[in-house]
Amino acid sequence: MFKKLSVVFLGTAVGVMTASGAFAQSATQEAKDKTASAAQKTAQVMTDAEITSAVKTKLLADTTVGGLKIDVDTNKGVVTLTGEVKSAAEKNQAIHLAKETAGVKKVVSKLTMETAATSGKKDIGDKTKDAADKTKDATVKAGKATEKGAEKAGEATKDAAVKTKDVVADASITSAVKTKLLADTKVGGLKIDVDTKDNVVTLTGMVNSVEEKNEAVRLAKTTTGVKRVVDKLTVK
After folding, report:
1. Is the pLDDT of residue 94 over 80?
2. What domains can be seen in the chain, in order of their start residue?
């Protein structure tokens, strides 16, 4: 009985020891892998930093490239250039220098040739042109306004002249009709009022008979310039 128990305990102990050994071996291997991965990443970062430094040094040393204005970034051997250059030749030279640097896999160019000075001159030119256009528009509008004002003034003067002429004509007609009524022995001209507007004569007042009324209307109708006679005469 005791022998059997000893065998069982011994087998269990051996199993536990074997499992512990396998677990320890696996943990050790995992730690080694992590260390190797970390070392590889560290080496990669250092390599990118070295590439950036090498490219920047080349750009600063080249007399045709404004190295101070160009930024250099490196990620896994891919170099990105950003900034402003004065010409296409300068841009091409910067890209060439980066490509020829050891460790560079690819170059991404984000370089632009538009300078702040050029942009400022362009903005000033555009603003000057806009101001000139606005001045021209204002001058044209002022000219049109003056022309319209003169046209309206001319029309107003013309209308006033026409109205004055009409008033004079109406007054002349009134005077002529009144003179006829006073000169005619059949009509009591002093009792008849004569009003003229737009060549239309209106007769108002009292007359002694229908014959007198008709004669007064006839005299008015036959006066030069009279278009129509409005009879408001009443017979006593």
Report:
1. yes
2. 42-116 (3.30.1340.30), 162-236 (3.30.1340.30)
